[in-house]
Design brief:
alpha+beta; eleven-stranded antiparallel sheet; 24 strands
Length: 664
């Protein structure tokens, strides 16, 4: 059976398409307003748009916007780097950071960006007996590239992805968090949105333009291609496409997976993260140093926490579990007498067996391994350094540990509780007493205690935190990992069959591969949506909305005084637009592009391939699109590139960066 995309998709705006096969979608894209060719999007023979796009770090996208390796991504994608350079004396989170020349740009050890060199269908090579390791070895060309082979359509197809990885990435600019993170957790995943979610980095290379470790001798990277920036914006209905690295979707799963997500996993994880966030937020509200110290951690915890809530609301609204069950009933009737008969029954059976192990795994990851003390013990004294304690408060971690262990004991079956922990709880009398004892006795519980113990030759193998971590690791290896892994393998094997069955059952439907953090194209148009009866969201926001939300008494809504002054004087310069007779600045916009995590920082482009903005979010009820795409309500959110340029020039005073860019 051929796994190609030649028919029209069920929903015209749904889909995350492989760039190397985009020619199969060009006719539809051109009918909607695309003006370029498939070769302009992806080519191995000439510079193409793909050469201006990077995988930023381990899970975001970035785009090149100058001939000197200048890179745009989201503020939240660069947040960890911004936070790592921040202190009470140099609070770049609150005040922003702007390098006024290349010598002021800040290095970021460990940060990489990866350019896709090429992709190749290797399904037939594997079927002919060639090994994955051999394919990767040849693709690496002696270490010039990195490579991986990824399964698509649940392993029915296999693709090779070859990357060139750059390692010297420097922070160039970031707006104050009151712009880059405007609205904080309250506005996260919501519309209308007024967040200037961008940060600026630069890629450096050796004198031959090749990847190199950080060195003062490195020079700005010269890209094969960089994006031209559209200063004209877009209107509702205009064609757009997003080009980036979407992380993970599961559009073709059974009702069992959706039911687990909606009725088991999400409720437990949301509750656990709510408790952690409440403890951290309380501590942050009382001390500026703690606010900075835990800013990145808070943001990381809160992002998925709120996403899961929106996802659950969307799945409930769509009645996705029942919709999947209805589909499965029709599939089973069709499959009678075929090779696909019985596959769904086997999947239901395996999922039922997996449930207790999956829940235990969730609790281990979200309640136990989030205790930082156990993270230090898991790293081990030989690998732990004094610097690992830079953003750590024992008091906060202790409170989190009490809350997490209490929920763990109430949420998992007795068989998943390590015997060592049961004995300690019996001895100490309560969770709170046990955690108090643990933090008092462990030498991992503070930087000072750790360094003193390490200097004195302390036996860390018998440290209470080491023993607790080992008890959970051993229990996970004994009871959770083997059964979870075996059942997951069986489920994936059955999905391979079920995926083929779905394609045969709906032979006129286009099936795009689920996202797996490989480069994809998603296309649609600028569009608002109907929220409820009589309520419709328009697809644009402006500076007027920022001013309406401005509140100096709330950290996330306390905009820079500079921005207030500009609003009063209307000193907008070349970035002003006129809407309903009023001059203002465009801030964000909605479109129908199918996106997910990993698309953060992706360029959103017009039909000429020009940069309109930077994708940074979805609407709250769109988050269920990882499992069930709804064309009527699923929208991605992007910061308008004109707002980015306005902030760079008027707030950052770094207009020289705009001089590097190509504007249209």
């Amino acid at each position: 059976m051929a796994f190609v995309a030649t028919a029209m998709s069920t929903f015209a705006d749904e889909g995350m398409w492989l760039p190397c096969l985009i020619g199969e979608r060009i006719e539809d894209m051109r009918a909607k307003g695309f003006e370029l060719t498939a070769e302009d999007i992806y080519s191995v023979n000439q510079a193409a748009l793909k050469d201006a796009i990077v995988l930023f770090g381990r899970g975001c996208t970035g785009e090149i916007v100058s001939e000197k390796g200048l890179l745009l991504t989201n503020h939240h994608c660069g947040y960890g780097q911004i936070q790592s350079h921040s202190s009470v004396e140099h609070d770049y989170l609150t005040n922003g950071f702007w390098a006024m020349n290349q010598s002021e740009e800040l290095p970021n050890p460990g940060l990489t960006v990866s350019f896709l060199h090429r992709m190749e269908d290797v399904t037939d090579r594997l079927a002919a007996g060639e090994s994955v390791n051999e394919i990767i070895r040849m693709a690496r060309e002696g270490g010039k590239y990195t490579a991986s082979v990824e399964g698509l359509y649940y392993g029915n197809k296999s693709y090779l992805f070859v990357y060139k990885v750059y390692k010297d990435i420097r922070l160039v600019g970031a707006p104050p968090s009151s712009i880059g993170k405007f609205g904080g957790d309250t506005d996260n995943w919501m519309w209308p949105r007024h967040t200037g979610d961008f940060s600026i980095f630069r890629i450096y290379a050796d004198k031959n333009n090749e990847p190199a470790e950080f060195s003062v001798d490195n020079v700005p990277y010269t890209p094969k291609r960089h994006f031209t920036i559209s200063t004209k914006g877009a209107k509702e209905g205009d064609f757009t496409f997003v080009y980036g690295f979407p992380g993970s979707t599961r559009e073709y799963v059974t009702s069992d997976f959706v039911d687990y997500t909606l009725n088991h996993s999400n409720p437990a994880k949301i509750k656990l993260r709510t408790l952690r966030l409440d403890i951290i937020s309380e501590a942050q509200s009382q001390d500026a140093a703690t606010r900075i110290m835990y800013a990145s951690k808070h943001a990381n915890i809160a992002n998925a926490w709120k996403k899961w809530q929106g996802e659950s609301l969307g799945l409930e609204r769509r009645n996705t579990v029942q919709k999947k069950r209805d589909y499965e009933e029709r599939f089973e009737q069709w499959a009678v007498g075929s090779e696909f008969e019985g596959v769904l029954g086997q999947l239901h059976e395996k999922y039922a067996s997996l449930l207790p192990f999956a829940m235990a795994r969730d609790y281990y990851n979200e309640a136990i391994y989030v205790i930082e003390l156990l993270g230090y013990a898991g790293r081990g004294a030989d690998n732990l350094r004094e610097g690992h304690y830079k953003d750590y408060s024992p008091e906060i971690d202790r409170k989190i540990a009490v809350a997490m262990l209490t929920e763990f004991m109430a949420g998992v079956g007795e068989q998943f509780v390590p015997e060592w922990l049961r004995e300690q709880l019996a001895q100490q009398g309560s969770v709170e007493n046990f955690i108090g004892w643990l933090f008092e006795e462990s030498r991992y519980s503070s930087r000072e205690r750790f360094m003193e113990a390490k200097a004195s030759g302390y036996d860390f193998a018998n440290d209470p935190a080491t023993l607790m971590r080992k008890a959970f690791d051993d229990k996970a290896l004994e009871m959770i990992a083997p059964d979870y892994a075996n059942l997951s393998r069986e489920i994936n094997r059955l999905y391979r069959v079920y995926m083929r069955g779905q394609m045969a059952f709906e032979s006129e439907r286009t099936f795009y591969p689920d996202a797996n953090l490989t480069l994809r194209v998603a296309y649609g148009s600028v569009a608002g949506y109907k929220v409820a009866d009589g309520v419709r969201h328009i697809p644009f926001t402006t500076l007027d909305g920022i001013i309406a939300k401005d509140n100096p008494e709330i950290y996330d809504y306390d905009i820079p005084q500079q921005l207030r002054d500009i609003y009063v004087t209307k000193d907008y310069g070349r970035w002003a637009v006129t809407i309903n007779g009023r001059e203002t600045i465009p801030v964000a916009f909605l479109a129908k592009n199918h996106t997910t995590g990993g698309n953060s920082g992706s360029p959103i482009l017009n039909g000429r391939g020009e940069l309109l903005g930077i994708n940074f979010d979805r609407t709250w009820l769109s988050t269920m699109s990882d499992l069930d795409y709804d064309p009527d309500i699923c929208r991605n959110i992007s910061v308008d590139i004109r707002y980015v340029l306005f902030v760079i020039e008027k707030i950052g005073g770094a207009g020289y960066l705009i001089d590097e860019m190509t504007l249209n």
